[in-house]
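Researcher: I'm preparing a figure for a lab meeting and need a structural model of a single chain. I don't have an experimental structure, so a prediction will have to do for now. The sequence is pasted below. Please return the structure as tokens so I can convert it later.
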Amino acid sequence: MTLRARAAAQLDRSLRRIPTAHADALPAVATAVLDGRPVAVTGGDDCTVRIRDLTTGDQVGPELVFPLPVCAVAVVPDGRLVVGFGWEVAVLARR
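Model: Understood. Here is the structure written out token by token.
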């Protein structure tokens, strides 16, 4: 098994253990490394985005609430969060 395949398998196992806390369907998932820790960013039909630490399962910061269901999430290399909701896109920078 290659290093990439092992990393993917580990990520898959980690994501299965992380409770998302979303009330409805979860159509959007992205992973990133923020402040040196691996995180999963999830967006749901419940109009929220949550960030979870993949090593602990803890939520990082408060949930972000949007006016429409979240259909896409991404984290760009500089750490900004891109969220697609309804027909809109938001780019959020950390403070």
